[in-house]
Amino acid sequence: MEMAVRSAKDAYEKWKNSSILTRQTLMLRYQTLIRENSKMIAENMVKENGKTMADAEGDVLRGLQVVDACTGIPALQMGESMPNIATDMDIISYKIPLGITASICPFNFPAMIPLWSFPVSVACGNATILKPSERVPGASMILADLFTKAGAPPGLLNVIHGQHAAVDFICEHPDIKAVSFVGSDQAGKYIYKQSSAHGKRVQCNMGAKNHCVVLPDANKNKTISQIVGAAFGAAGQRCMALSVAIFVGKSKDWVPELVEAAKKLKVNAGHVPGTDLGPVISPQSKERIHRLIESGVKENATLALDGRRLVVKGFEKGNFVGPTVLTNVQPSMECYTEEIFGPVLSCIFTDTLDEAINIINKCPYGNGTAVFTTNGATARTFANRIEAGQVGINVPIPVPLPMFSFTGNKGSFLGDNHFYGKHGINFHTQTKTITQLWRSGDASDIASSTVMPTMQ
CA-CA to 98 of 20 to 30 Å: which in 16, 166, 301, 332? Predict the structure, then answer.
């Protein structure tokens, strides 16, 4: 691991002075190689993560969109200037690289999350270290190989592997100036605390409990379809998955149709054609999901659809959990307060939109939320009053495209600058401000002054 830092340090000394055109050219080449090899990357994720092929291809595409944005990053890296801010005085500010940055990535998006971070860092002039999840390292290794083939100098991107020792190394090494993390609450809080204590910038995207609100005037068929896809796709293993649906008024009558739609989803190994959702990542994850479903039953939630006893022929020992729907859920229940991170949808019933908004705003997490309605005024009210950082109007998973930034808030995020977009540029750069004075016709000596300069 120490060798990775030395390698990055050497690369940074050369790369920090590279031209913007050189960085842009690297990103253009890298973009092309990812497109050409996207199927290979997706196939690796299907094998290691268990994703369906369609979901894996979407994983690559969303990461590629960040690389696409990095090809135009010079427009976001421009500084500011002000001539004649005082007599014969100009001020110029530049965005300059930090040095060496690092990314600690989760298992659920083996391509997208690495591509959220290291291309942005490198495009800003840094060298970087990537630590993929030990469960799914393959995609990161392919991406690193393609980065080298795109023309990246040796040491610009370094991949290290491991668990706790590797994390501590990144958090504590004095030459690493910034740390990006996506993953669980427990790990995120630890990484934020350790990295901050060692003087680093940190951005940690952590747990979530994403809600949607269903109003009676919504398009029923489209809404049900959207909820089913967002709740159960990727076996619910998305930080932006819909895990709670709040049905307002008569929309609760749609739940039986939602359950029937969920029953039609095909659960199988990810490589089997026609599969809608594959297995969860591990036996431990499956056990935790089962426990939280059972806790809901014990606390008097209604189990409208039970996916716990699912057995997939040919993969009897697989970590499969079928779509599960709990209704009559209350915000005090463990199945609500804990992030399940599996294909489980909790349904809450309220009489008014105000009640629904209050429930969401009391939730400690703030990654994303959505509302389904055909009323523009209602949608606007919801967007203005809701506290979650990312809001969808008839969009169940409102992850911004990379010309904007991922803006989860509250307990879902620790740090000051978010991932990619303008926030990502700010995270991976620091501002240097130069104040220069060139007196016109100043050819004679001037007596020294000890008075505070007032720039008059």
Answer: 166
